[in-house]
């Protein structure tokens, strides 16, 4: 059997690694109040192995370092104490654990800053609104340019954070000098327009980062210090006209400090003939560095094994693969299948079983039946107010009682590892007096805001129902909108209502419905009219509309969509992803039980593969 280079031992300074598979730092946004939580004990210990090397999620060095929700810090005594049992759990399994410390700089907004102040940066130029890799849109506040005399204070924040990390029991720290955050804002010319000794020349632009390294090395020793760099990347509008020169300058400076390792990010990979192609631009930097070199950026088992075998890198950091596979080194050893987030989505389906507009306990079974690890589920359409109703026994989310009723349903999905979004709607004129409070007329416009209740019942997000002729679409389409104010007439005006809602929320994905399919020679034909819209959208794209296994597989393979939502097939087959995997027979869908209010029949009684065999 050929040697698996990724799984060979490696000596990193005083640390004896049993393999070369590194857990990359991954922001997890689960450190409530910026304090690491007990659930992180399980997360990190699951990924620990004897002699395995783990790097924490990015951890703030001060209260001004924050730019994302619920990210951990290490500047207070409470945070240090909270890290200790997490570190101990990794050490108990024989792992080596480094804490990545960062300051986000201008990648922030007033809401994350103490007293609502401006974020600090190398510059006073803000980052334009960004669409992240997951499709979410983030707006950033105008930063305040650090005065020259303030910079030593930030350097000291990094020094104290490193000291605190050692007190918490970490084996060392990784300085986050990549991805457009504060250190890189100084290093890269696109984000540094300073005229003092921290701006202008390459030497000046790197001065701040090198002062941080010097302070940390003086505090805890070079043998416990690593750094992450991304000279070739352009994250957060941070780019450089000569990234290789920047990288080499930093490498040569790092050699003088004698730090333990350099963790370098590849340029963005490309997809060629359906396979990832990693640019492999790091060789000159790797050859110039005297310490341990870690490469990151889209590697899989084969590619990682190859670059270690060829000496291109010493270690390889894995992010998403390690996230989905806590036992990744063992899977690499056995060449075992890897968990992956499936692309089969439960489409929203009106179920008419929420008596009194309150979700019922039988929904726990319905949704948990269809949940799977990493699978995305979208609830049935859920009313935003008492005027939003137009069908019998549909759920709402505008009262405390409804919010509390959703919580155990959401928990059941999360307990199976599912991702759960709540679809919210207002039916508008698709209603009658009987569904409206006090028998009033249905409304066709409203000034009610989208409720914030979904933030408090555990859902991972919300889907706004802007389709199928309901209120938002009544505004958007000219056949239902005869208004003469700023919400009617032109295309811009007709879309104003829905865009006002979106502007307050930001957006992760677009879930688009195909035109009605036709039947040709006894087979369904899906029109496939969404390609231009899919290509124009920057986020995750979900297609729906009559897809089956073969057609869904085809459109994902061809890049026509990222995910496919299934309605009736998922309703009749709670284990649909498993049936697709095995190409197993499907239960037939029963239309006669679709809109009934029975809590079992047509709801939770469709058989699973095992029981129908």
From TrEMBL:
Keywords: Fatty acid biosynthesis, Fatty acid metabolism, Flavoprotein, FMN, Lipid biosynthesis, Lipid metabolism, NADP, Oxidoreductase, Oxylipin biosynthesis. One of its GO terms (biological process) is oxylipin biosynthetic process. It comes from the Eukaryota. InterPro entries: Aldolase_TIM, OxRdtase_FMN_N, Oye-like. The keyword NADP applies. Residues 119-142 are annotated as: Disordered. Transmembrane segments: none annotated. One of its GO terms (molecular function) is FMN binding. This is NADH:flavin oxidoreductase/NADH oxidase N-terminal domain-containing protein.
């Amino acid at each position: 059997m050929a040697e698996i280079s990724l799984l060979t031992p490696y000596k990193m300074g005083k640390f004896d690694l049993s393999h070369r598979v590194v857990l990359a730092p991954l922001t997890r946004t689960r450190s409530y109040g910026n304090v690491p939580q007990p659930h992180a004990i399980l997360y990190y210990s699951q990924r620990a192995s004897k002699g395995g090397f783990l790097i924490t999620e990015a951890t703030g060095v001060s209260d001004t370092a924050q730019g994302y929700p619920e990210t951990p810090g290490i500047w207070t005594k409470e945070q240090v104490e909270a890290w200790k049992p997490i570190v101990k759990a990794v050490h108990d399994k024989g792992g080596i654990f480094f804490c990545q410390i960062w300051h986000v700089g201008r990648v922030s907004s007033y809401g994350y800053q103490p007293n609502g102040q401006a974020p600090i940066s190398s510059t006073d130029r803000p980052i334009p609104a960004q669409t992240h890799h997951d499709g979410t849109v983030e707006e950033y506040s105008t930063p305040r340019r650090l005065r020259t005399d303030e910079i030593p204070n930030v350097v000291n924040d990094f020094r104290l954070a490193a000291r605190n990390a050692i007190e918490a029991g970490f084996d060392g720290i990784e300085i986050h000098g990549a991805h457009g955050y504060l250190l890189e804002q100084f290093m890269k010319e696109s984000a540094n327009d300073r005229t003092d000794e921290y701006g202008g020349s390459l030497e000046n632009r790197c001065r701040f980062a090198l002062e941080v390294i010097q302070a940390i090395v003086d505090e805890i020793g070079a043998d416990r210090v690593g750094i992450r760099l991304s000279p070739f990347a352009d994250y957060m509008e941070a780019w450089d006209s000569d990234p290789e020169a920047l990288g080499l300058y930093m490498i040569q400076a790092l050699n003088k400090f004698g730090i333990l390792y350099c963790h370098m990010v590849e340029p963005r990979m490309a997809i060629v003939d359906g396979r990832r192609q990693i640019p492999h631009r790091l060789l000159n930097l790797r050859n110039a560095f005297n310490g341990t070199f870690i490469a990151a950026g889209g590697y899989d088992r084969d590619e990682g094994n190859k670059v270690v075998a060829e000496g291109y890198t010493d270690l390889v950091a894995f992010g998403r693969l390690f996230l989905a596979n806590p036992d990744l080194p063992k899977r690499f050893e056995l060449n075992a299948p890897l968990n992956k987030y499936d692309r089969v989505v439960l489409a929203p389906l009106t179920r008419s079983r929420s008596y009194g507009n309150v979700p019922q306990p039988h929904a726990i079974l319905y949704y948990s039946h269809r949940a799977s690890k990493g699978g995305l589920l979208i609830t049935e359409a859920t009313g935003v107010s008492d005027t939003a109703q137009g069908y019998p026994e549909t759920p709402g989310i505008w009262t405390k009682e409804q919010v509390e009723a959703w919580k155990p349903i959401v928990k059941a999905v999360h307990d199976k590892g599912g991702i759960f979004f709540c679809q919210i709607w207002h039916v508008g004129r698709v209603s009658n007096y009987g569904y409206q409070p006090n028998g009033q007329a249905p409304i066709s416009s409203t000034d009610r805001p989208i409720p914030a209740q979904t933030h408090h019942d555990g859902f991972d997000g919300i889907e706004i129902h802007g389709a199928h002729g309901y209120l938002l679409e009544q505004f958007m389409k000219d056949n239902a909108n005869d208004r003469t104010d700023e919400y009617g007439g032109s295309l811009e005006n007709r879309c104003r209502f829905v865009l006002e809602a979106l502007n307050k929320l930001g957006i992760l994905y677009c879930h688009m419905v195909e035109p009605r399919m036709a039947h040709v020679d006894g087979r369904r034909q899906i029109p496939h009219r969404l390609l231009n819209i899919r290509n124009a959208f920057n986020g995750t794209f979900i297609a729906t509309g009559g897809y089956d296994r073969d057609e869904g597989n085809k459109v994902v393979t061809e890049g026509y969509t990222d995910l496919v939502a299934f309605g009736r097939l998922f309703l009749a087959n709670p284990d649909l992803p498993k049936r697709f995997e095995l190409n197993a027979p499907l239960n037939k869908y029963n239309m006669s039980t679709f809109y009934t209010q029975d809590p079992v029949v047509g709801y939770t009684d469709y058989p699973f593969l095992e029981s129908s065999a």
